[in-house]
Amino acid sequence: MTTGATTVPERDTPSRRERLRSNLRSNLRADLPASLVVFLVAVPLSLGIAVASDAPLTAGLIAAAVGGLVAGALGGSPLQVSGPAAGLTVVVADLVGRFGWGVTCAITVAAGLLQVLFGLTRTGRAALAISPAVVHGMLAGIGVTIVLGQLHVVLGGEQQDDAIAGVLELPGQLISLHGPATTLGLAVIAILLIWPRLPRSLPGWVRGIPAPLLAVVLVTAAAGLFAMPVERVEIGGSLLEAITPPVLPDGRWGAFAVGVLTIAIIASVESLLSAVAVDRMHAGARSDLDRELIGQGAGNTLSGLLGGLPITGVIVRSSTNVATGAKSRASAILHGVWIVVFSVALLGLVQQIPMAVLAGLLVVIGARLVKLAHMRELHRHGELPVYVVTILGVVVADLLTGVIAGLALALLLVLRRVVWASIEVQEPAAADADDRGEHPWHVVVEGALCFPSIPRLARRLGQVPAGAPVVVDLVTDYLDHAAYDHLAEWIERHERGGGHVRVDEVGSMGLLDRRAASSGGPGARRPGPVPRFLSPWAMWQAGHEATGGGHGGHGHALDAGDDPDDPILTGLREYHRRAAGLVAPYLSDLADGQSPYALFLTCSDSRVVPNVLTSSGPGDLFTVRNVGNLAPVGTGADASVGASVEYALDALEVPTLVVCGHSGCGAMTAALHGTGGNGVLGRWLDGADESIDRWRAGHPVAVSAAARGASDVDQLAMVNVAVQLDRLARHPAVARALADGRVRLVGLYFDIATARMSVLDGARFVPASRDRLGAGAAGTPGDPATAAFPAAPTPDPV
Fold first, then answer.
1. Is residue 785 classed exposed, middle or buried when 0-12, 13-18 and 19+ CB atoms within 10 A define those classes?
2. Secondary element (H or E) of residue 756
3. 598-603 and 656-662 strand pairing
4. Buried b (16+ CB within 10 A) or exposed e, 409-425
5. Does the pLDDT of residue 454 top 80, yes or no?
6. Residue 570 clears pLDDT 80, i.e. is over it
7. Disordered: where is this region (predicted)?
8. Residue 543 pLDDT > 50, yes or no?
9. CA-CA distance, 16 to 35, in Å (whole number)?
10. Cα dihedral 455, 460, 464, 469 in deg (nearest 10)
11. DSSP assignment string, 202-255
12. Tell me: the pLDDT tens digits for 463-515?
């Protein structure tokens, strides 16, 4: 309300407060049980990761608590749960061995501050540019290292820090006598493997018990019940006593900086990848990756200051959080609260856990970091070598070496794909005869044909016999000058020796680009990477005459056409060669009938291609074409359009009737200037008289077009679209369909010079690229001349 000039803000209405309370209660009902389940999963995992990292066990609990309380509250992924992660165990163990625990905590603090800087400078998405093959290979290498180190503990020996030594000593460990520790470790592994495969007939609450918690509790209880003489966890004080400040190194600052950068990058990448994966598991709010980096950095800073392990977003806990129905970040925060309560009040229970139990848990965790699904996916994309090299580097050397080796190989593979072409020579088949009756050899070149490929190109071309007919299939996206010169010279030599060469070029960076550059001058507009189904024949069926006499000073052009005098047959062969197999499945589905979306009435002009302009395919448009896109729907000589309309409405039940005009229309020019003659064409163009009369009377569409500088012919072409829509609306079949709401009328205009489409919206044509059209774009049956496409829906926020 207002008092004088002062405005008093109104308080929240009761209904709004009630909605807020209702949402909080609803979220809490889901987040509270989810947080308890995540807590039960996090505790044994955190202890096991601390063991694998050669860190104090309390460091794992501190990191888990900070990950929930700080990263959960400040991070940008609402359902991600953070804590100590297996992906950093090898790095942390190496740092502890070289610097000690206090300096490792300082490295964690500095890495956290660096992560905050990453987030503030909005580099979150940049981290996703790292090859997934390297990331998955890094995690798999860490998993192999964990398994090789902890398997010795399961078998009753000591943890191995060197992977190679662990492999060499494993046979002796297997044949030696094993004590109760082995029984406990193998029991944990068995439970973890069997529990997820329980039959679905069991009650949901049974199957919902976290396997790590069940394995640790059951096996620890059995060890206590039978009083097994095994090594147990030693905490060495309370959680508060375990809080230790970080210590700066007394030298080796270069190694310190490398450790900071390594922790920051690995923690950031793992957190971001986990956040993206979690987003795919639910339909709620998406992650803010830059904010997630800030939250992770703040968590690592505090964890290091308190003496905790580095933290990341952890996919195991996060997926558990989503699977148990969490609705908001409150679940992650509450799980941190439960860890604090447990660590303060129940820490004595932790000291009852045998070390072999945690070792068995770590063996399974490490093994699950090596995923066959990742290998299969990377193999399909040709990136399995990057994965393998990264694993070997991490296992044999160290994590940084493995990551650098993987990145280097990934960059080399990318470079190879960019500059390396696939070149194959195919001998002629008996049934493969061309239009000359010859059996040509095929040279297929795919990819980027650059100078590094010239030796292989020369070797492959040398396999073609002298005088043989040859088809060179250039499926290239780049053709450099050296490769072009070599290919042109070979063609010239081969044809001098009596052979015939035809170059079938599919790419856009070879013959076509050079022809445009040589004929158009420095300011010429070069063709882009346009596929053949969008290109006119002249652009890819160019023979010697079309190339302007040759390129590169050789006086010879790459002959790209089958027969310049028969482009239709050449086009048909191209269709069967490249497109028929792709379109066949769609045509097979349409073999028994059609159900097009629209009748599309347009001009016969060869520059207007309806399926290209509407991005449509077989079965989408019922196309009717005539000179001037006229709709005389009466009887006699003009009955063809009316028959098509009735068939489209009654037999095909199309919901849309489209009339499309275009710029520079020859029919409108002839009708306006009376040059159609007295024959059939002149009588046909009489159908445009109404359009001319309404244009001269100042039709609103003409006024709008004139204001934008359109020529008289183009103004008439636009008015003609509106008039033909009127004529269609007066047809009895269309009038009935409009009255019943079964059809709408749409007016389109194609500007050939700019390749842009416009839609009739009220009294003007507006760009079809607009997200929304005006009020006249609703396709109102009562005003067919102003009907157009309906407004596009507002896109969902990302």
1. buried
2. strand 756-761
3. parallel
4. bbeebeeeeebbbebee
5. yes
6. no
7. 775-798
8. no
9. 27
10. -100
11. S-HHHHTS-HHHHHHHHHHHHHHHTT----B----S-HHHH-------SS-HHH
12. 999 999 998 888 887 888 888 889 989 999 999 999 988 887 765 444 444 44
- For residues 448, 454, 457, 458, the Cα torsion angle rounded to the nearest 10 degrees is 170
Contacts of 379 (CB under 8 A, 6+ apart): none
Which CA distances in Å does 581 have to 446, 575, 585, 587, 588? 19, 9, 8, 10, 11
Q: How confident is the model at residue 415 (pLDDT cuts 50, 70, 90)?
A: confident
Contact status, residue 547 vs residue 512, Cβ threshold 8 Å: no
Query: CA 425 to CA 427: how far, in whole Å?
Result: 7
Nearest to 342 by CA among 743, 658, 81, 47: 47
For residue 128, what pLDDT is reported? Answer: 67
Q: How far apart are CA 65 and CA 127, in angstroms?
A: 26
Burial state string for 297-334 with b = 16 or more CB within 10 A and e = fewer than 16: bbbbbbbbbbbbbbbbbbbbbbbbbbebebbbbbbbbb
pLDDT digits (tens, 9 = 90+) for 66-84: 999 999 999 999 999 999 9
The pTM of this model reads: 0.58
Under the banding of pLDDT at 50, 70 and 90, the label for residue 522 is very low
* Cβ–Cβ < 8 Å for 763, 704: yes
What's the farthest any 2 CA atoms get from each other in the chain? 114
In one-letter notation, the amino acid at residue 628 is G
Mean pLDDT for 192-210 is: 80
The token duo for 773 is: 């059209």
Helix (H, G, I), strand (E, B) or coil at 765: strand
Check if the beta carbon of residue 388 is closer than 8 Å to that of residue 405: no
- Tell me the two tokens of residue 75: 């991070």
Rounded Cα distance between 633 and 662, Å, is 21
Q: State the Cα–Cα distance between residues 684 and 440, nearest whole angstrom.
A: 50
- Please choose, from the candidates 500, 463, 503, the residue with its C-alpha nearest in 3D space to the C-alpha of residue 487: 503
Q: Mean per-residue pLDDT for 122-128? A: 74
**May I ask the CATH class of domain 421-426+437-576?**
alpha beta
Q: What is the mean pLDDT of the chain?
A: 81
The model's pLDDT over 176-189, given as tens digits with 9 standing for 90+, comes to 756 888 889 899 99
SS (H, E, C) 264-325: HHHHHHHHHHHHHHHHCCCCCCCCCHHHHHHHHHHHHHHHHHHCCCCCEECHHHHHHHHHCC
Which is more confidently placed, 68 or 354?
68
Q: What is the pLDDT of residues 585-595, one digit of tens each?
A: 888 889 989 99
- For the domain spanning 595-786, the CATH number is 3.40.1050.10
For 457, other C-beta atoms within 10 Å of its C-beta total 19
| Tokens (6 digits) for 312 | 């990341």
List Cα–Cα distances, 488 to 86, 423, 445, 491, 505, in angstroms. Answer: 57, 16, 14, 5, 13
Rounded (10°) angle between helices 712-730 and 700-707: 150
The residue with greater pLDDT, 440 or 164, is: 440
**What are the counts of helices (DSSP H) followed by strands (DSSP E) for the chain?**
34, 14
Q: How far is CA 411 from CA 30, 272, 390, 537, 718, in A?
A: 45, 22, 13, 38, 54
Q: Which of 322, 265, 436, 389 is nearest to 41 (CA)?
A: 322
pLDDT at 238: 67
Q: How far apart are CA 259 and CA 62, in angstroms?
A: 21
Q: Round to whole Å and give the CA distance between 292 and 275.
A: 8
**Considering only CA atoms, which of 523, 522, 570, 529 is closest in space to residue 546?**
570
Residue whose token pair is 């992770």: 296
The tokens for 740 are 């019943």
Would you place residue 3 in the very low, low, confident or very high pLDDT band (cuts 50, 70, 90)?
A: very low
Domain boundaries, the chain: 27-396, 421-426+437-576, 595-786
